[in-house]
């Protein structure tokens, strides 16, 4: 998955090894790849029975029981303004903790855990959809295109409860 830019000098092997990297869990929604820091992830699962929650915001698909804890299931497609999934294949869930509560982010597919050097991170492009801009911490340029770094705190703050989450200085 590594890209060598022609206008940048190649790094020696020792430089590449010493470069700080971030461990990320990857997942896709529609045909777009996203990632979040592995330390934010509590579990990955295929939600079987999602119980509806009356009068919940549209992004709240319902709730599941995860080892005795009630976990709110968030439809990331709705949060990102994407249409519902056309196929009836199983969705995957990435469970995260936010403000001492567990949430399962419903996504299309879970990918791999990858280690990416910070030098490959970039600010979100200005051409990124405004809805996505609000919940993106930046992007990693990959061979297959851009992988969006999802800001889970902003996603859950703004899209679930309808309030703005505090902006983290990075």
Tally of alpha and pi helices: 4
What is the overall silhouette?
globular
Question: Separation of termini?
Answer: 25 Å
List unreliable stretches of 5+ residues. Answer: 1-16, 163-170
Instruction: List SSEs in N-to-C order.
Output: HEEEEEHEEEEHEEH
Strand content: 35-45%
Nearest-integer average pLDDT: 83
Short descriptors:
mainly beta, 6-stranded mixed sheet, single chain, 4 helices, 42% strand, 170 residues, 5-stranded mixed sheet, disordered C terminus, disordered N terminus
Can you describe this structure?
There is one protein chain. A six-stranded mixed sheet has the order 8-1-2-11-10-9. It is mainly beta. 15% of the residues lie in helices and 42% in strands. Residues 1-16 and 163-170 have low confidence and may be disordered. The longest helix has 9 residues, at 152-160. The protein contains four helices and eleven strands, in the order H-E-E-E-E-E-H-E-E-E-E-H-E-E-H.
């Amino acid at each position: 998955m590594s890209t060598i830019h022609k206008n940048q000098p190649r790094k020696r092997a020792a430089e590449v090894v010493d470069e700080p990297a971030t461990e990320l869990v990857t997942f896709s929604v529609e045909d777009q790849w996203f990632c979040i820091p592995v330390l934010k992830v509590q579990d990955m699962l295929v939600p079987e029975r999602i119980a509806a929650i009356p009068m919940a915001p549209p992004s709240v698909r319902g709730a599941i029981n995860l080892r005795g804890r009630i976990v709110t299931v968030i439809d990331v497609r709705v949060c990102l303004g994407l249409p519902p999934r056309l196929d009836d294949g199983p969705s995957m869930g990435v469970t995260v903790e936010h403000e001492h509560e567990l949430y399962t982010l419903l996504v299309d597919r879970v990918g791999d855990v990858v280690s990416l050097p910070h030098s490959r991170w970039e600010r979100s492009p200005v051409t990124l959809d405004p809805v996505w801009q609000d919940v993106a911490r930046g992007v990693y340029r990959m061979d297959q295109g851009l992988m969006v770094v999802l800001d889970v705190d902003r996603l859950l703050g703004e899209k679930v409860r309808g309030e703005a989450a505090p902006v983290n200085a990075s």
